Amino acid sequence: MGVSGCGKSSVGQSLAHALGWTLHEGDAYHAEESIRKMQSGTPLTDEDRSGWLDTLTRLLDSAIATPGPGVVLTCSALKRKYRDRLRDAGPSGTVGFVFLDLGYDTALQRVQGRSGHFFSPELVANQFATLERPEGEGTVLCVDATLPLTEIVQRTQSWLGRPHALTT
Ligand SMILES: Nc1ncnc2c1ncn2[C@@H]1O[C@H](COP(=O)(O)OP(=O)(O)OP(=O)(O)O)[C@@H](O)[C@H]1O
Ligand SMILES: O=C(O)[C@H](O)[C@@H](O)[C@H](O)[C@H](O)CO
After folding, report:
1. Keyword set for this entry (predicted)?
2. pTM for the whole thing?
3. Which 3 state secondary structure label does DSSP give 74?
4. What is the value of ipTM here, to two decimals?
């Protein structure tokens, strides 16, 4: 989880690969209308995100109920209530969050520096205005998102071995 540009897709891919888990890209489940809004620089509202979060919660629920590898889901999950929706999936405590913590300047730089992505750089400030940091919630690992990818993946793998010990 985290703001646009924090590295959700990059970390998600590497982590899923390292763990042999299935990767789901949360952005692939946005409504077309939501994608158009973000392309044109209009921030999503709670209402825009509501059906999307329902879909992602159902996806997690069904993945948790299916025997097999675990699941890595990339999702901005900017607000506490969004995360609480996702936490409804599976038995209590099954869903954990890795918060990729990045400052505004670096996020903007990263979003401006990539091409072919639907997300408008104009929206980065709004991502930070919307973000409710997850420190203090159950089963959350906070990681400095400027660390090398391999280091973020290693820290997450080691946290997954003892998630409650490192919960903030
Ligand atoms: N740990 C890192 N160190 C340096 N660059 C990184 C790191 N993680 C991601 N990046 C770079 O930052 C940019 C944004 O990364 P990425 O697309 O993974 O973020 P994201 O959170 O999925 O963004 P969005 O939600 O907007 O799709 C990419 O160019 C990526 O290569
Ligand atoms: O909740 C949101 O506002 C969205 O999920 C965004 O965070 C983007 O989809 C994502 O970061 C892609 O750039």
Report:
1. ATP-binding, Kinase, Nucleotide-binding, Transferase
2. 0.94
3. strand
4. 0.95
